[in-house]
Amino acid sequence: MAYQTIQQEYLQIPVVTRAYTTACVLTTAAVQLELITPFQLYFNPDLILRNYQVWRLITNFLFFGPVGFNFLFNMIFLYRYCRMLEEGSFRGRTADFVFMFLFGGLLMTIFGTFVNLVFLGQAFTIMLVYIWSRRNPSVRMNFFGLLNFQAPFLPWVLMGFSLLLGNSIIVDLLGIAVGHVYYFLEDVFPNQPGGGRWLRTPSILKMLFDTPEEDANYNPLPEDRPGGFAWGEGQRLGG
């Protein structure tokens, strides 16, 4: 019974969030069990181009370090904000969400080459947090019960927290920069005079990930109607 409940809860996680977080956890577990080593996963342009180790383009986004506070902290934020994005502004737009992953990953890979970063998963998490925060500007946040602020400040609060822990803020800055590029091209520039949409999801992604539109006249049975999902400590102003 408990197994069925866990399985049911797991399958209720949106598909992209479920796939990415599962891949991150399994990758970390494989490293902990010494089935693989971080040296087989990190981003190395020379090994990718000369030795054709193309898997490094993906695996460097899946490893967040050994199991510990930093790993758990990143997993919580990754799961939380990836899911809220997928169930919020990307609800019913799985192909667009996958395209955002691909665009962000490509941009980070290019930038990562110049700043000499070997694992980009944390920066990717900050990118997700940044995009969510800009699309939910009126949400009030509480950080460990110490700080109260509005959502757009969250990425900068996380960067300050990283600084207090003695970590490099290059990773956070990279995530913020890539997140802002996507946010500007997707949400800001198309609405400006003379602007337009530069980011268009390829039709092959829509064919693979988006389900056909339902008949507007179809009235589902009560048990078939999807339920909502309330998540997070944020609270909208005026609510």
From TrEMBL:
Keywords from UniProt, A to Z, are: Endoplasmic reticulum, Membrane, Transmembrane, Transmembrane helix
Please state which protein family the record places this protein in. Belongs to the derlin family.
Residues crossing the lipid bilayer are 57-79, 99-132, 153-183
| PANTHER family hit by this protein | DER1-LIKE PROTEIN, DERLIN (PTHR11009)
Q: Which protein is depicted? A: Derlin
InterPro entries (alphabetical): DER1, Rhomboid-like_sf
User: Keyword Iron on this protein?
Assistant: no
For this protein, the record's SUPFAM superfamilies field holds: Rhomboid-like (SSF144091)
Q: Name one GO biological process term.
A: proteasomal protein catabolic process
Q: Where does it localize?
A: Endoplasmic reticulum membrane
Q: What Gene Ontology cellular-component terms does the record carry?
A: endoplasmic reticulum membrane
| Superkingdom of source | Eukaryota
Role summary: Functional component of endoplasmic reticulum-associated degradation (ERAD) for misfolded lumenal proteins. May act by forming a channel that allows the retrotranslocation of misfolded proteins into the cytosol where they are ubiquitinated and degraded by the proteasome.
Topology in the lipid bilayer: Multi-pass membrane protein
The record lists the organism as Cyprinus carpio carpio
Q: Name the coiled-coil region(s).
A: none
The answer on whether this UniProt entry bears the keyword Protease reads no
Pfam families registered for this protein in UniProt: DER1 (PF04511)
